[in-house]
Amino acid sequence: MNKITYLDGMRWYRALIAGIRHVIARQDYLNNINVFPVPDRDTGTNMALTLSAVIEGTFAAPKHHLPQLFTTIAESALSGARGNSGTILAQFFQGMAEGIDQECGKMEPRHFAVAVSHGVQSSYNALSQPKEGTILTVLKDFSLHISQTIAKNHTDFVNLLHLGLDAAKKSLQKTTQQLKELKKAHVVDAGAQGFVDLLQGIYDFIHHGSLDQLEPPATNSISKEQMSQELSHAVDEAHRFCTECLITADHIDQHTLRQTLENLGDSLVVAGSKKKAKVHIHTNNPAHVFAICRTHGHLQDEKADDMIQQQRAINHQRNEVAILTDSGADLPQELIAKLDIHVVPLQLFFDKQCFIDKVTITSEEFYQLLKTNPHHPTTSQPSLGDFYRQYQYLSSHYPSIIAIHLARKISGTISASEQAAQKIGLNNIAIFDAQCTSVAQGLLVQLAAEAAKRGAKQQEILELLTAQRNHTKFYAAIPDLTYMTRGGRLSTSKKRLLEFLHLVPIISFKDEGKPSLITCLWRKRNLSKKLAKLIQQQTDLTKTYRILVSHCDNESAANELKHYIEKFIPNIESITLSRTGATLGAHGGPQTFGLALQPVSWT
């Protein structure tokens, strides 16, 4: 075989895509061996998402100018970076882009070695506390070996990568002994394995010369049950949220940013350039992290995943079906944890200030802001990327998924979810329109999650949801009309008329999820009792019900309603108090209260 003494832009691009394809094909295996820094089983998903962003970002980019191609690769990886290893890998690409000779039209092995060395140093610098026995160690050992090979006058890329890959594989095997978490689980570091998989794909392409000639990568087996037993308590409760954001500004002082953040958690990575930086940290205070990052520039792609909830769901996963919903569904947090319900949060905005619903702002904090902030809040659906990431993750752990979303007629959330599912291209994702929100949506989610726990299949659960949807009723009283007027849902003249007549609107969901006025009650006395009487009159009292009583920031009214419902509805399986989130609260205001009820016979 002829020596390959250089790579032009197109050939390097194709080799990298081959490597990326190799990692994506191995993502389930990488998830299963993920135990460090926390065993949340998402390293494969995160690396696949990071590298998929490179494919998307470079597809239409010019390939003839090699330094610019490296820059595009780095920027794409940074924008799509997910997780600890994904962010480190993005910084590795950033360092390579800075280290490649800017006059380099064709990359020789010596150019490649310098760029890799620069990438490794940049990766180490991105971490506040670099840890050996991880992807960093394998990056370093690969770089040292190819530099030593170049020093011996080797000028063939195939031989260089063969020797470098061999060194990386040996370094990978040593990681099992370098970290106690890996030694206990008898696995190598997942991020390091992902980098070796990337190298393997690159080497195979350069050696064989065609993407079509590459064989599908073999997948090692790993016992999920054994991993779950050994690592069931490995997530640090003091740093439970995997928190990330992207900062853009004219100048970002990464050193100062890193110093400011390092006491807020662990696994801190600040990657990127002077104009764009990706922050990754495990913390219990995502809101504080985002507030600090906001002082350094404009924030994008904020996310905070609860790793304890992820680990609990995966380690105790016996279900055939994963149940996913959005934060429009109101359920007690302990029930969400108990039933392994996965939640994609909506975003809240007070003017330009952004919050992740129920993650970086609690319901209590939201209502305090609602009362005091001069700007009326708006809600925004999760992004297509938020859903895509969840579907990637859940698909690697569950045979099928059901996503239950707030009504299509009041939000574009379900459309974003559908687009993400279509982009994934799997036929195991079913998306269900709850045609309601708040505690009514919560009851449907609870119903589905309990059925999944019992071992029901996807189609069985969908049939159950379809049958139950029209029998799940919702009622909300809105005593203070100020917020409906501020949000543009009610005209000032109608507000004045209702207040003059001392009438309180009662809202429900009609016509496939459209919020509708069903009646008005006189507000003077015993509003909770009057609402309970109305519900009694519209309820089949021969059936047994599960009930969620809810309130925005009006617990006394909700407790009164609960008291009267227990008197007026004879057959109640369970009745629980739950605080209503921002999806309804932004429009109804703090005084809003009500309930949802569901006949148990349907369950």
- Domain count: 4
Strand content: 15-25%
Number of continuous helical runs: 25
Which strand order spans the largest sheet, edge to edge or round the barrel? 14-13-12-17-15-16
CATH third-level topology of the largest domain: Serine Threonine Protein Phosphatase 5, Tetratricopeptide repeat
Taking the alpha carbons of the first and last residues, their distance comes to 67 Å
At CATH level 2, the architecture of the largest domain is Alpha Horseshoe
Number of strands: 17
Oligomer: single chain
**Fraction in helix:** 40-55%
CATH-wise, what's the superfamily of the largest domain? DhaL domain
Sketch the major β-sheet.
6 strands, mixed
Structure description:
This protein has 603 residues and is of the alpha+beta class. The protein folds into four domains: 9-212, DhaL domain (Serine Threonine Protein Phosphatase 5, Tetratricopeptide repeat); 239-305, YebC, transcriptional regulation domain (Alpha-Beta Plaits, 2-Layer Sandwich), CATH 3.30.70; 306-470, Rossmann fold, CATH 3.40.50; 473-599, Hypothetical Protein Tm841, Chain: A,domain 3, CATH 3.30.1180. Helix content is 50%, strand content 18%. The chain contains 25 helices and 17 strands. The chain has a six-stranded mixed beta sheet, with helices on both faces. Helix 18 links the parallel strand 10 and strand 11 (429-433). The longest helix has 22 residues, at 157-178. The chain starts with 8 loop residues before the first helix and ends with a strand. Mean pLDDT is 90; it is low at 211-219 and 221-233.
